[in-house]
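Weekly puzzle thread! Below is a chain. First person to post its structure in token form gets bragging rights.
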Amino acid sequence: MLLLLLGIILLHVAALVLLFVSTIVSVWTSSETGSSDLWINCSTANGGYHCDPASTGEWIQAVQALMILSIIFSCLSLFLFFCQLFTLQKGGRFFLTGTFQILASLFVMSGAIIYTVMSPAWVPETDAFGYSYILAWVAFPLALISGLIYVILRKRE
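Winning reply:
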């Protein structure tokens, strides 16, 4: 049972780390001359490095909000898991923890979908999706799986 709990916690922490990295690091799209993310667009021109704030369009703000919400809900889920681990009665399920983690996965999925659909209007066609974008998509199934495991998990003595 202890190994199962350790595995679940490691899966949750892995998803949380991926969420933090994908939200903070500025490589959602990249090209030979620069990179862009949710917060800032950087490019090299005339031998210098120039950064501008991200677009103020509603869609990028929606992606920013959804990614931040996914981090908040995943952190709350981890906190709730530890609280429920010590307060839940024997045989009880971790429904609240699982619900928060599933919501976190849905938030990151929604943010990545919005970015995928709307970025062609904002990012040049020569740019490719960067590793932060890919990490966001990898965090989605990890968070969803850990949320489903929490819903199925029963507390034992």
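Puzzle host: Confirmed. Bonus trivia for everyone else. The two ends are 9 Å apart (CA to CA).
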